[in-house]
Every structure is written in structure tokens, then in C-alpha cells.
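Project outcomes to date are best conveyed with an example. Our students and postdoctoral researchers have been running inverse folding experiments weekly, and each run begins with a structure described purely in C-alpha cells. The record below, which covers 378 residues, was selected by the lab manager from last quarter's runs and is presented without edits.
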């Protein structure tokens, strides 16, 4: 029996369409010797005014500059194309070419995604968690996880975040019982942690938190850091912020590409992107130190916010509530258990090394600055 090739599928036609930058069999073709730039439309999960959106723009600029304009990433703010919590679907389906957010925002798709930052991480900070991701098996586990839910994405966790505050309240929190009946915003496994402490939890994206507090839909909320919280207007609805918490002390950002689009890029461009991720990760952490420390002072001096340290007894209760929550999830989700055990093994040696090796900075800080502070009070 003779088969007649359709005209569109001939060898000549295939390469003619590829040279024109067409889509062949659903795959975007990168034309050989293409003269024009490759354009990508991205979205972040952050409002345009948040420093997090600035981080997304910083990454895009690095890629645009490093490729000499051969790849141009345009980053839109949350809601421009898809809702903040819809980023994974938007990128996976190709509605967007990529995005900037956090893995915990995809918690509803697979709760194990929250292990990249939503919880105490067995004592690791965010930089250690990124070390686990790159060198301790996390990258392979994340690929396995995304494959398990059919997500057509390439993910690059990056950008270590400092320990996040317990949040913003009407009055200082002095004990775990203060959470009972409290209408509180958080995300990820932290939903289970604070529900276990008695709170009525509502998961909202960053741009919706302050309006909800202003309307009385929330009594209290956590988001992330002094700069974001100040830009988003938390000081307009609360004058009490509790510092230090285990609910998100090791979170990082996520840079995400549509896998079909990413795989079609030239090898050189993929290498540039991967190195730009690491460059942006370092730059983000340095910028955070500068900006967060400035806004921490501004919140106190200009916005009259009072900061309090979360009591140790409450921090211990968080750990206990977290352990109870993840034990249930690990029993129901084999992949959750596998990831958690991998993190635990890495943390046992990494955190021990860190605690034994690095000197506590409090003594040096007090030596240099405590006399000055005492003199001002006098």
C-alpha cells in the first residue's frame, strides 16, 4: 500500500516553517541564524510596587543583558494575565512563557511543593535549603514532583529569604493561646500549623492582604519582610509586628519557564539562563540586606511600628504543630515523605556544621553598638 505524504509534512516544508520561526508539531522552533530576538512574556505573582516584582525585573534584565538582547523577557505584575495563585497553570499551559513566584503558592496542586520554604526546614536557613536543592538531591526530587502532576515547566529555585516575621497584629502575641479564633493569613503547610494553634486561616496573595485587614476580614497576617510589608501598606492597618518565626524561615523564590519553550532554546542560551539564576540569587540576597535593614528603621521611626520578638514558648509550639502536620502528610503522600527525609538527612550535618563553625554575631554587635544605644537613651 502506498502512503502519500501530506504537503505540510514534507522535509522541505518542515524546514521552511522552522526557518520562519513557526510552531511545528506544537513545538516553538528557534530558527537557525535567527536575526531577531526571542521574546518571552512573563508574569510575577507580586504587585508592581513590591520589591519582589523588582527582583523579577532584576532577573529579566540580567538575562536580557547577558544574551545581548537575543532573548528578551518582559515581566508583568500579578493579575496581568493570570491570578497570582494561577502562575503554575499559566506557565505550564503556555499562556505565559515563564514566571517569578514561590513554590508554596502551588500548594494546592501538590502539598509537597511547600517543603521548599514553608516550615522550619529542620533548622536550615534559606541558603542551606538551596544548597540541599542543588547538591543534596532536591533538584531531582522537584523534577519528579512536577512530573507527577503533569506540570510542563522547568523550575529554578533561587533567592534565599531571611526568616519571615510571625506577622502583623492588633496587639503583641505573648502565648500560643492568643491564636485561638484569630482570623489570620498565611500559606502552605503554615496553614496547617496555625490551624493547629487554633487560628481561622485564610490564604491570600500578597496584594490582597492589607485590603482584607482594612475591611476586618483578617485580624492578623504575615507576608515576608520589612520592605515588602512597608510598600504593601501593613503599617497603615497595624502598628505591631512580631519578629522571628519557624513557619517560613527557609523560603526562596522560584523562576519558572514553560518547558516546551525552554527546551527549544539554543544550548548557549540555556546556559546563560542557568548562570543568570545564580547571579540573580546572590544579588537578591545582597539587595535584601540593604533594603530590608533601611525599611526596618523607617517602619520604627516614620511609621511608628513597634516590633516584638516572638516568645520562645510559641516558637516551640510551632515546631510541635509542624511535626504533627507533616506526619499526616507524609503518611498520605509518599513523595512528601521522600522529600522530607532527604531534607532531614542534609540538615542534620549542614546545620550542625553551621552551628559549630560560625560565631554568634550578637556579642560583636553589642560590643560595637550597645554603648552607643545606651548613650542615646541617657
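After processing, the design step wrote out the following sequence:
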Amino acid at each position: 500500500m502506498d502512503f502519500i505524504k501530506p504537503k505540510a509534512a514534507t522535509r522541505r516544508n518542515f524546514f521552511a516553517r522552522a526557518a520562519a520561526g513557526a510552531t511545528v508539531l506544537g513545538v516553538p522552533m528557534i530558527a537557525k541564524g535567527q536575526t531577531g530576538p526571542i521574546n518571552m512574556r512573563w508574569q510575577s505573582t507580586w504587585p508592581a510596587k513590591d520589591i519582589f516584582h523588582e527582583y523579577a525585573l532584576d532577573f529579566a534584565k540580567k538575562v536580557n543583558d547577558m544574551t545581548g538582547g537575543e532573548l528578551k523577557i518582559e515581566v508583568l505584575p500579578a493579575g496581568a494575565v493570570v491570578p497570582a495563585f494561577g502562575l503554575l497553570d499559566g506557565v505550564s499551559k503556555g499562556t505565559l512563557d515563564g514566571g517569578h513566584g514561590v513554590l508554596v503558592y502551588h500548594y494546592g496542586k501538590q502539598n509537597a511543593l511547600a517543603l521548599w520554604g514553608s516550615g522550619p526546614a529542620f533548622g536550615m536557613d534559606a541558603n542551606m535549603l538551596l544548597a540541599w536543592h542543588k547538591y543534596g538531591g532536591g533538584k531531582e526530587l522537584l523534577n519528579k514532583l512536577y512530573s507527577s502532576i503533569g506540570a510542563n515547566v522547568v523550575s529554578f529555585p533561587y533567592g534565599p529569604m531571611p526568616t519571615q516575621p510571625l506577622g502583623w497584629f492588633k496587639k503583641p502575641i505573648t502565648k500560643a493561646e492568643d491564636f485561638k479564633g484569630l482570623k489570620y493569613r498565611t500559606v502552605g503547610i503554615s496553614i496547617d500549623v496555625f490551624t493547629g494553634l487554633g487560628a481561622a486561616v485564610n490564604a491570600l496573595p500578597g496584594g490582597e492582604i492589607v485590603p482584607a485587614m482594612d475591611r476586618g476580614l483578617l485580624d492578623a497576617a504575615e507576608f515576608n519582610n520589612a520592605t515588602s510589608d512597608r510598600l504593601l501598606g501593613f503599617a497603615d492597618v497595624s502598628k505591631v509586628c512580631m519578629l522571628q518565626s519557624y513557619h517560613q524561615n527557609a523560603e526562596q523564590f522560584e523562576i519558572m519557564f514553560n518547558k516546551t519553550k525552554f527546551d527549544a532554546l539554543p544550548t548557549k542560551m540555556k546556559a546563560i539562563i542557568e548562570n543568570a539564576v545564580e547571579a540573580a540569587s546572590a544579588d537578591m540576597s545582597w539587595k535584601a540586606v540593604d533594603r530590608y535593614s533601611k525599611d526596618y528603621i523607617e517602619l520604627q521611626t516614620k511609621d511608628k511600628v513597634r516590633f516584638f520578638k516572638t516568645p520562645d514558648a510559641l516558637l516551640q509550639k510551632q515546631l510541635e504543630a509542624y511535626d504533627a502536620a507533616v506526619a499526616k502528610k507524609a503518611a498520605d503522600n509518599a513523595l512528601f515523605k521522600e522529600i522530607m527525609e532527604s531534607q532531614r538527612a542534609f540538615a542534620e550535618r549542614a546545620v550542625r556544621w553551621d552551628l559549630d563553625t560560625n560565631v554568634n554575631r550578637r556579642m560583636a554587635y553589642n560590643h560595637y553598638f550597645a554603648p552607643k544605644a545606651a548613650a542615646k537613651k541617657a
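The first helix runs from residue 11 to 19. The CA atoms of residues 132 and 346 lie 6 Å apart. The training component of this project remains on track.
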